[in-house]
Amino acid sequence: MPGLSGRFSTVIKAKVSKLLDRAEDPQETLDYSYAKQQELLQNVKKGIADVVTSKKRLQMQSSKLEQQVVKLDTQARQAMSQGNEELARMALERKTLAQTELQGLDPQIKELEGQQESLIAKEKQLRQKIEAFKTKKEVIKAQYSAAEAQVQISEAATGVGEEMADVGMAMQRAVDKTETMRARASAVEELEAAGAFDDITQLGSGEDDIDRELHQLTSQSAVDEEMAKMKAELGAGGGAAGELGAGEKPKEEAQ
Amino acid sequence: MIVRIATEGQYRVEGENEARLNELDNEAVAAVEAGDEARFTEVFGQIIELVRGGGALGGDELEESQIILPPSDLTFEEAGQEFTGEGLIPD
User: Fold this and answer.
1) Residue A66, SS3?
2) pLDDT of residue B54
3) Are A73 and A134 in contact (CB under 8 A)?
4) What is the arithmetic mean of pLDDT over B52-78?
5) What pLDDT does A244 receive?
6) What is the pTM (predicted TM-score) of this model?
7) Chain A residues with beta carbon closer than 8 angstroms to that of B21
8) Are B64 and B2 in contact (CB under 8 A)?
9) To the nearest whole angstrom, how far is the Cα of B16 from the nearest Cα of chain A?
10) ipTM attached to this prediction
């Protein structure tokens, strides 16, 4: 079959034959294969643990960003009620940035969850095949004819080998995707370290590099809109600035 | 005939479905060569559906697959690499 699947079969089968390192003595081949299978099964378990770790890291980041959004919103309101529009704008810009990051994280966390599930299913499949191999191994060992045993070993080992090559591929795909997410996660952490999401009241009024970058990164119209809304809210409240100082919960973003 | 969908599992494809699979497979290749992503997605989806419909092999069956299909989440870009680059899985 020369098509898509034909090409693909060739690639996988080359990998399978690499896995099947046949010794001269059939008994040895059987035991060696089984040991090798057990070893690879451990690798699969490690791979799943890696995915879980990455997922937890993203989840932690997500909840940190959620807290930042609430905090920055409160700060913006406080600044606004004190008449410091410049500071309020800065806080809102940072809030917008944090919200954008947050939106990007959600689908990634879901994707990792899906990968975790499918890897667990694959691991179970592989474990079943290895179990079947173990049973067959004892049957084959009892065969009279060495030639007959050789054929059966080859078949059984290929069956498991294919499953292992396939799990290996599923893991590789999961790792590739996780790498991209890790890179993104560290980028967010760097931003955090640089103070992009920090307490803006600590910074004073002087503009720094982060502020200039923020001006470029955030959607100015969204920030303007929110500034106007906040002003209106504060105006409607009869200028009761003191009440907001206690850290009123923002209405729409707090959830 | 036993067919594996990579990263998923093995299935039995029998009778006229074998011939149908071959046809679809060639159509998928043609779509990739023509750069027709929509057509490729449609045909590849049909291939996966056809194979899954055949019934999965039991976990304790140690069989070699006659055909191995790429994973069902294969992107058009990856399909293109199957024919040009070093393939989906580097050595």
Assistant:
1) helix
2) 87
3) no
4) 89
5) 46
6) 0.70
7) 5
8) yes
9) 16
10) 0.81
Give me the residue label for tokens 């879901």: A110
* CA gap A194, A202 in Å, rounded: 13
CA-CA distance, A95 to A172, in Å (whole number)?
A: 36
Q: How many residues does chain B have?
A: 91
What residues of chain A score a pLDDT lower than 70?
1-2, 19-24, 144, 193-220, 236-255
CB-closest option in A125, A128, A159 to B63: A159
Position A104, amino acid:
G
Question: pLDDT, tens digit, for every residue of A182-198?
Answer: 777 777 777 776 666 66
**Secondary-structure percent of chain B, ordered helix, strand, coil, rounded to 5:** 45, 15, 40
pLDDT digits (tens, 9 = 90+) for A75-119: 889 888 888 888 888 889 889 888 988 888 888 899 889 989 989
Backbone angles phi, psi at B81, to 5 degrees: -65, -30
Q: Which of A3, A14, A169 sits opposite B29 (nearest CB)?
A: A3
Report d(CA B81, CA A96) in Å as an integer: 39
d(CA B37, CA A172): 25
Amino acid code (one letter) for A1: M
Q: Are B28 and B79 in contact (CB under 8 A)?
A: yes
Helix axes B37-52, B16-33, angle to 10 degrees: 160
**B81, two tokens:** 């690499």
